[in-house]
Write a structure and sequence with these properties.
single chain, 75% helix
């Protein structure tokens, strides 16, 4: 008898899965590198594969959007506003602290730089900051804007599996464009659209009363798809260089096969831990850590890289501890200490950032929900201006930035055709 995993388990274990994924992202950025250590390449392969955590984030984002939409239907404008205001205040606060730090250390950023970073338009103009959050947050907002038309088409389509398959093919085809013109951050977004689409599909199967199709997957099938995906990724690792994997986006297509199965297996594992009695003493603190990290996953994402950067700008533990003695299994013990210290500081500061963002959100909500005629008129023009600026900025940024110009596109196409 085959054991199956119900898709609804993703809703029950979503916070813990996201907590595990954000901790994996923090470890990925830690700087710990096994490639120069004897027998270290398998461990380095696993560490670099943790970049896959972002795909699961976007998969669960699509899944959560569907659940929220089915539970609370209403105007799309209100729906998108609530989702974006969950993200932007914390993002703005993080950038404000970084801006203040740069000013205090004598590295005054220019007005265009501040504008591009705070508006998220820098992502589309190729002028985003150096932090991972400065591509992930704009990419996530772009996917939020894509959700209403995508979900509307999905609901109206009879063959939903076929719609998902063709949508993934189209998304991967769109990914060719940033490859041609060398827009790596846009490539990281377009290659993650399949994860978002799969999240929509699985969310609909799990929570829509009229959904047709299986609502579960056998554990054996899930393991098979995971092994197949990572075998394909191992082939990519063995036949390409690091530069080629990033240049052509070769990391992500093999992992499309594993996104849903890995999420389901993690959800099942977490459910077993919640119900288990034998391992309760071990499971309770682990589940608390994962649940806490999942509840503050946005804040942890925003905070961990600046903290790493702050430690490394002050000569870092990896240099200071290196003089204390031999390394641990060939690895600089300072990297371990950086990881532990920055993770602990990030976990401690995340609730503070969340509370500060809630205050900003409350202030914005009071403006948006004001009932006077003057406030309504001002709000109407303000929100319309924001929407127009974002849409125009995205379009013009994609077309006019130097690294993404029409001329570059024409030259790239001509080069592919052998023209000079």
């Amino acid at each position: 008898m085959k054991r199956t995993i119900d898709y609804r388990i993703l809703g029950e274990s979503r916070a813990e899965i996201m907590g595990l994924m954000i901790l994996a992202v923090i470890f990925y950025h830690s700087g710990i590198d096994w490639s120069g250590v004897r027998w270290g390449m398998p461990f380095e392969f696993v560490r670099r594969s943790l970049y896959f955590s972002v795909d699961i984030f976007l998969f669960l984002s699509g899944f959560g959007l569907v659940r929220s939409r089915l539970t609370h239907p209403g105007p799309w404008g209100t729906f998108l506003y609530r989702r974006m205001m969950r993200i932007l205040p914390a993002y703005w606060l993080m950038l404000s602290v970084l801006w203040a730090y740069e000013v205090a250390t004598g590295r005054m950023p220019g007005v265009p730089t501040v504008f591009f970073r705070f508006s998220t338009l820098g992502f589309w103009f190729g002028k985003q900051g150096p932090l991972a959050a400065e591509w992930f947050i704009p990419a996530l907002l772009g996917l939020y804007l894509l959700f209403p038309p995508l979900f509307t088409l999905y609901e109206q389509t009879l063959s939903k599996a076929r719609f998902v398959a063709w949508s993934i093919v189209l998304a991967l085809s769109i990914g060719i464009l940033p490859i041609l013109i060398g827009h790596n951050n846009l490539l990281m977004m377009t290659t993650r659209i399949p994860a978002f689409i799969l999240g929509i599909h699985f969310g609909h199967l799990a929570f829509s009363p009229g959904a047709a199709g299986n609502r579960s997957m056998s554990i054996q099938r899930a393991i098979f798809w995971v092994l197949l995906a990572f075998a394909a990724l191992a082939v990519v690792f063995g036949t390409t260089t690091e530069a080629e994997r990033w240049r052509y986006g070769l990391w992500w297509p093999p992992l499309i096969l594993a996104i849903a199965p890995v999420s389901l297996l993690l959800g099942q594992w977490i459910a077993w831990m919640k119900r288990g009695i034998r391992w309760r003493r071990f499971a309770k603190p682990v589940l608390w850590l994962l649940g806490f990290s999942g509840a503050y996953s946005l804040e942890l994402l925003l905070l961990h890289e600046p903290l790493y950067e702050l430690v490394r700008r002050t000569d870092g533990l990896s240099h200071r501890v290196g003089a204390l003695g031999p390394t641990i299994h060939g690895l600089n013990r300072g990297h371990y200490l950086e990881f532990i210290a920055c993770t602990a500081a990030t976990l401690a500061l995340a609730p503070l950032l969340s509370r500060a963002a809630a205050l900003v959100r409350t202030g914005v909500d009071s403006f948006v929900e004001a009932k006077t005629d003057e406030a309504k008129a001002l709000r109407k023009w303000f929100l319309a201006g924001i929407a127009a600026a974002l849409i125009a900025g995205i379009l013009f940024g994609v077309l006019l930035q130097k690294s993404f110009g029409i001329g570059n596109l024409v030259r790239a196409a001509g080069g592919m055709l052998g023209l000079r």
